[in-house]
Design brief:
There is one protein chain. The protein has ten helices and ten strands. The protein is of the alpha/beta class and about 325 residues long. The protein has a single domain, classed as TIM Barrel. An eight-stranded parallel β-barrel has the order 1-2-3-4-5-6-7-8. Strands 9-10 form a two-stranded antiparallel ribbon. α2 links the parallel β2 and β3. α9 packs parallel to α10.
């Protein structure tokens, strides 16, 4: 049976406390995570004790044994607008990042880094929305960065694949893939308007959260638009981040999600799930920790030890 990668995501800098928490969580789950999600880039707040530039936390994650990697965000401080990125403001940062990862010799053509330029494009707290630019600005920026990283792309013998990862509401409220009826904030950035085109990415994804308040969505409502989109564009899908607030009956939600994912299949084919990056932390939307309480831990333990989620990189 083909399986997908079961990963843990961090939305903070990877420091010693993060690794200690992950190790303790893995012991509770009875398995190790296949990889990590690294958020943001070398913005001056990165810990330096693990090494220079990206070599710090990203390479440390590999040596920690979590070898599947999704890197979101600009590897440099990052331009504040998509038009600036499209004009080349971050080119040097991307080139340095790709060079250093390649020179590290840890990720390969067969085990690439999955890199996205900017996730959750409508969310202003993530730097997106009108302050970042229009959908046309995003498309231009995404295509520009795609071209910048081509010397390091898998198709050219390198160790990078490019991902396009919106927020799940950009799919759910898209009339093509979801139910439509977007809010004023989401409407300009639904995926049908924002998509750079499947020639400009290798993997699609979404950040999918079920918060403690603000609606009781089913797994099908949240995940089916992502699967539908991935199938249409002919790509596998990942979650850049995903979490369930502990008050939302995670056992029932995960059981429903498990059924959906197994029906769609795991792997690198169109509409298949390639990797899940679970967020395990307390945030404004609730307590998303996989060990927040006994019932949540039991539900995640059952999922984590199913062979369907057992893909690893030796």
């Amino acid at each position: 049976m083909t399986s997908c990668f079961f990963n843990v995501s961090s939305t903070a800098n990877l420091d010693a406390d993060y690794y200690a928490y992950v190790a303790a969580l893995e012991k509770k789950l009875g398995r190790t995570f296949a990889g990590i999600r690294k958020n943001g880039g070398n913005d001056g707040s990165e810990p330096t004790k693990y090494g220079p530039y990206v070599g710090g936390e990203v390479v440390n994650a590999f040596t920690f044994g979590r070898k599947w990697l999704y890197q979101n965000g600009q590897p440099g401080k990052g331009a504040s607008t998509w038009s600036a990125i499209a004009a080349g403001a971050d080119d040097t940062a991307y080139e340095q990042y790709c060079t250093e990862i390649t020179n590290a010799g840890l990720w390969t053509n067969q085990n690439p880094v999955h890199l996205s330029m900017w996730h959750e494009q409508y969310v202003t707290s993530e730097g997106g929305g009108p302050p970042a630019g229009t959908a046309a600005d995003y498309i231009a920026a995404h295509r520009h960065v795609w071209n910048v990283i081509q010397p390091w792309h898998v198709r050219n013998g390198g160790c990078f694949l490019f991902a396009f990862v919106p927020h799940w509401l950009q799919l759910y409220h898209d009339s093509t893939y979801g139910i439509g009826k977007p809010s004023k904030a989401v409407a300009p950035y639904v995926v049908s308007k924002l998509d750079p085109g499947p020639a400009y990415y290798d993997v699609v994804g979404a950040d999918i959260y079920l918060p403690a308040s603000g609606g009781s969505f089913s797994a099908a409502e949240q995940w089916t638009p992502l699967h539908r989109w991935a199938t249409v564009v002919g790509k596998p899908f990942i979650t850049g981040e995903t979490g369930i607030a502990s008050s939302k009956n995670p056992a029932a939600y995960l059981a429903a999600l498990d059924s959906l994912l197994k029906g769609w299949g795991a792997g690198s084919g169109a509409g298949q799930v390639l990797a899940l990056c679970w967020t395990s932390r307390v945030a404004s939307g609730g307590d998303y920790r996989m060990d927040s309480d006994a019932a949540t831990l039991a539900a995640f333990t059952k999922l984590a030890n199913d062979p369907f989620y057992g893909a690893v990189i030796a």
